Amino acid sequence: MLAPLSEGWPGEERLLELGLASLARWDDFAAELDAFAAGIVTSRSTVTVAVDEADARDLSRIRDWLADQGHPVGALSRAELRDAEPELTRALRPGFSADAERAVDNRRLLKALTAACHASGVQRIAERVTDIDVLPHEQVVVAAGAWTGKLVKGAPVRPVKGEVLRLHRRNGAPAPPTRTVRAWVHGRHVYLVPRAHGLVIGATQYEAGFETQVTAGGVRDLLADAEAIFPGISEYGFAECIAGLRPATPDNMPLLGRIDERVTLAAGHGRGGILLAPLTADAVVAELSGAPLDETKHTNPRRFS
Ligand SMILES: Cc1cc2nc3c(=O)[nH]c(=O)nc-3n(C[C@H](O)[C@H](O)[C@H](O)COP(=O)(O)OP(=O)(O)OC[C@H]3O[C@@H](n4cnc5c(N)ncnc54)[C@H](O)[C@@H]3O)c2cc1C
């Protein structure tokens, strides 16, 4: 999801601005990559909904906070939500819609980026780096995700595990929603991202070190919460469950910038690395050309030291 508004959180005002700056670049970024893999953008617009009254109160606080930040989001009535997404549970309380947000197919995106790099003459060496000091290069950009702290001593990046499920739509099963649906379900969060042949459901969140086994409890919670908002999933087929590691920092802002004359960090993107990809690319190029972007003035990787 490219969802800086729907994932916005009071206290994370700088992350909201950074996410919006990257979202503004996304349509051009996707258009450029379209030549390498079509269909990267899979849906436009996000709707956020609540299951109970406490969830609805939390959502309305977020909506007020977004408006205070100068980014009002659209209000939806129950009838509008029912008309727009008739397969969702009828009793849901609509929160808001963010029409500028997008969802992308992350696997197609990586395929396109790999092909684009290849076409631009990037040489890929499939080897694990163990020590950046021995690399023979004048400039080094470390973009090692959750493992960045293993290459750059003291880099404050830790892994935050997350699980996602992929379901495929079987013949006769109800159609998935047309937009991304984010839901607050009795205090927990779940999202449904429509895909051409089904749905992606995510995501759990645990502090579990570098361990990436999918847990039975994670799958149960995701399915139960997703079914609470879209009962039709019980007729879908189970395609995949997978766990990954979000590279998190203490303030949830990425580490984007130089740590010395030779090494630049592009890491710590937490739950928004795909959203922040085009901004990160611009920021790295700007940093290497000696003219850092104003938009990254709060991402200095040395801000914790
Ligand atoms: C369940 C889940 C859901 C998510 N949903 C979203 C979402 O909806 N929207 C969004 O924007 N983001 C989302 N994210 C976050 C996003 O996936 C991350 O922010 C992003 O992948 C970070 O990109 P990265 O390239 O910095 O790190 P990674 O994707 O982790 O890539 C780092 C790479 O560096 C390699 N590497 C590490 N160490 C070395 C070494 N020593 N030598 C060589 N290579 C090395 C690794 O093998 C890996 O390929 C989600 C993450 C998870 C886990």
Automatic annotation (TrEMBL):
CC annotations in GO: cytoplasm
Pathway(s) served: Cofactor biosynthesis; thiamine diphosphate biosynthesis
UniProt EC number: 1.4.3.19
InterPro entries: FAD-dep_OxRdtase (IPR006076), FAD/NAD-bd_sf (IPR036188), Gly_oxidase_ThiO (IPR012727)
Origin superkingdom: Bacteria
Top class in the EC scheme: oxidoreductase
Catalytic reactions of this protein: glycine + O2 + H2O = glyoxylate + H2O2 + NH4(+)
Residue span, FAD dependent oxidoreductase domain: 11-285
Cited PANTHER family: GLYCINE OXIDASE, SARCOSINE DEHYDROGENASE-RELATED
Protein name per Swiss-Prot or TrEMBL: glycine oxidase
Organism the protein comes from: Hoyosella subflava (strain DSM 45089 / JCM 17490 / NBRC 109087 / DQS3-9A1)
